[in-house]
Amino acid sequence: MSRDGHIDLDLNGTTHRFRLAIGDLEALQEATGAGPADLLHRFHAGRLYRFRDVRDVLRLGLIGGGTPVPQAHAVAGSLDGQPCIPLIAKAALVLAAGLEGADDERVGRPAGAAGPGGRIAFAAFYGAAAAMGLPAADMRAMSLWQLAAYIDGFNRARDPDAADAPTPQEEDALWAWLRNAPDDGSPA
């Protein structure tokens, strides 16, 4: 995955760049009524989605990737009648790229990043951007990974001695220890 959330995929015999920045994810959530993470889960589960949702992901991903709006609408409109499974797979890849960012660098997730039903609490992003003096338009153009890295850098600059977040392995070890702790209050 890329740091800016883009992915290049073939659609109708042409390679297109797809990208869902924060503003695109916000538009997707408004268009579909579902959180982007919830849509991704639905695509992977193979149920509870509408073809319109697949088309919206691809259309907004094209626009976010730099395709002019009229052309993105035309490409999305041409998807009707095509085999669904390959399109669902491509929409899932576009969503995953927009939600995950770079695999090789883990940064903290902004507070409020995911709410009920996978919906993103965008107010937290706007609040963080305001606190950092980041213009809303600049924040909306970022991928989630880029915003998380920006927030992480801002926080480290303000408090360089702050502890790092636990690694996934440290989190797993802590949960395993907590599950095995006796209920009587004595040490494990």
UniProtKB/TrEMBL annotation:
Pfam families, alphabetized: Phage_TAC_11 (PF11836)
InterPro entries recorded: Phage_TAC_11
Protein name per its UniProtKB record: Gene transfer agent family protein
